């Protein structure tokens, strides 16, 4: 694999770009591996990379039923932030933000992480109090946060609907280190780095059956043959319940819902941050501008359960209304495309990363809205769990037993309703 550096860029500029090697291999499956990660999105690829890099495991396979990054990794609005408050979540997401900050150097691949700030609009005194508590907690635990007055917000983002909005804007709470990254680049960077450490990335390799023996998974039946693994990790987002039932483990406290995202035609620079509009549950909307100039936005879940990766018109209408409510200047933009990711929504809005009833099976699921930004730390902690057979103290409560133990990881404080944890 050719390393990216100034000299190789210069040299290949002179030789017609003929000196670049293939970025990752397309190997044939082996009959067995030390570790098999099911799911070739960001979480699966990151897990394989950190297993090889930090835990000296190299006989690893990543199984992807389609192409790598073809699921939720390529179907999101690319937001990266760490403005979480609950113990366990707070440390986890701050770690993931720190990993993002150095990820391009670590992977030797530009993931295009732009720390342009995450700006949450405040619409009531109650919201101000709630966000002040959250951001003070962040600052007390080594993160960053700012409170912007209405005057400062108007100077920073002058073209919001300050005068005629249905919900008055009182100011904003801001995390300056947050921002966006390019999802495809992150996928390619992790794939390339994992492959360089000997990881087999097996695309078009769907798991169709699971054979159990003596309380463990003996083998996985796939569209590319039977594959055995000493350790098996599930990292398949919205399709986790399908594999869980395939392994004869019953039901999970997860619902699969669609989450749509939208892209407009490109315009000149208009918004240099991630902007969040969410007045007290009446709406939930987030928007940013891509490097190409398109406005990228999304909002609430489609509230019915589905495995479809396509959208529907009511959600298009709702998100368009939110866009117009906060930024009327977007009214004449044409919508180029929209799509849906299949979200694995847990009962309390927090993820699962734990051992399972099967001795050699490990679970990474329940990411709700947080999957993309969590990818680096998800891979880091999941690799640590698989290699060391015990959860790191940061994720020790992110298990399937937390509900019966009364452990509270609910960031929004709204109770056991997966549809409400957007």
Key traits:
globular, 422 residues, eight-stranded mixed beta sheet, 11 helices, alpha/beta
First-to-last CA distance: 40 Å
Morphology: globular
The gyration radius over C-alpha positions equals 22 Å
Instruction: Note the beta-strand portion.
Output: 25-35%
The tally of helices reads: 11
Estimate the helix proportion, in percent. 25-40%
Q: Look at the structure and give the mean pLDDT.
A: 93
For the secondary structure, the number of strands is: 18
Structural class, judged by helices and strands? alpha/beta
Assembly category? single chain
* Contiguous uncertain segments of 5+ residues: none
Major sheet description: 8 strands, mixed
Helix-strand string: HEHEEHHEHEHEEHEEEEHEEEEHEEEHH
Can you describe what's shown?
With 422 residues, the protein is of the alpha/beta class. It is 28% helix and 26% strand. The protein has eleven helices and 18 strands. The strands form three sheets. Strands 1, 2, 8, 9, 10, 11, 17 and 18 form an eight-stranded mixed β-sheet that branches. An eight-stranded mixed β-sheet has the order 5-6-4-13-14-15-12-16, sandwiched between helices. A hairpin with a 5-residue loop joins strand 17 and strand 18. Helix 2 (42-54) runs parallel beside helix 10 (371-388) and helix 3 packs across helix 10 (371-388). It starts with 5 loop residues before the first helix and ends in a 17-residue tail after the last helix.
């Amino acid at each position: 694999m050719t390393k990216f550096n100034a000299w190789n860029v210069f040299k290949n500029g002179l030789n017609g770009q003929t000196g670049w090697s293939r970025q990752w291999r397309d190997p044939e499956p082996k009959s067995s591996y030390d570790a098999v990660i099911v799911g070739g999105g960001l979480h699966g690829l990151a897990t394989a990379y950190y297993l090889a890099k930090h835990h000296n495991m190299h006989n690893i396979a990543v199984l992807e039923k389609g192409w790598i990054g073809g699921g939720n990794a390529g179907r999101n609005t690319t937001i990266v932030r760490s403005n979480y408050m609950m113990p366990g979540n707070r440390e986890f997401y701050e770690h993931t933000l720190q990993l993002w900050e150095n990820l391009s150097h670590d992977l030797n691949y530009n993931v295009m992480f732009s720390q342009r700030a995450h700006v949450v609009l405040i619409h009531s005194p109650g919201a101000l109090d709630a966000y002040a508590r959250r951001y003070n907690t962040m600052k007390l635990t080594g993160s960053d946060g700012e409170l912007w007055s209405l005057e400062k917000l108007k100077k920073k983002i002058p073209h919001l609907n300050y005068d005629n909005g249905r919900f008055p804007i009182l100011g904003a709470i801001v995390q300056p280190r947050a921002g966006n990254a390019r999802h495809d680049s992150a996928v390619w960077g992790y794939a390339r780095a994992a492959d360089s450490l000997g990881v087999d990335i097996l695309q078009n390799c769907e798991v169709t059956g699971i054979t159990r023996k003596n309380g463990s998974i003996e083998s996985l039946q796939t569209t590319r043959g039977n594959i055995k693994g000493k350790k098996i990790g599930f990292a398949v987002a919205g399709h986790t319940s399908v594999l869980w039932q395939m392994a004869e483990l019953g039901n999970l406290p997860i619902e699969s819902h669609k989450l749509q995202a939208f892209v407009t035609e490109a315009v000149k620079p208009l918004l240099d941050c991630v902007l969040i509009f969410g007045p007290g549950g009446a709406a939930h909307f987030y928007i940013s501008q891509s490097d190409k100039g398109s406005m990228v936005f999304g909002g609430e879940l489609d509230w019915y359960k589905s495995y479809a990766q396509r959208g529907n018109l009511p959600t298009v209408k709702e998100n368009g209304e939110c866009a117009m409510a906060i930024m009327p200047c977007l009214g004449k933009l044409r919508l180029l495309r929209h799509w849906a990711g299949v979200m694995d929504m847990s009962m309390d809005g927090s993820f699962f990363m734990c051992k399972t009833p099967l001795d050699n099976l490990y679970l990474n699921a329940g990411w709700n809205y947080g999957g993309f930004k969590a990818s680096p730390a998800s891979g880091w902690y999941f690799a640590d769990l698989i290699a060391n057979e015990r959860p790191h103290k940061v994720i020790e409560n992110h298990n399937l037993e937390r509900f019966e133990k009364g452990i509270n990881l609910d960031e929004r404080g709204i109770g056991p309703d997966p549809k409400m944890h957007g």
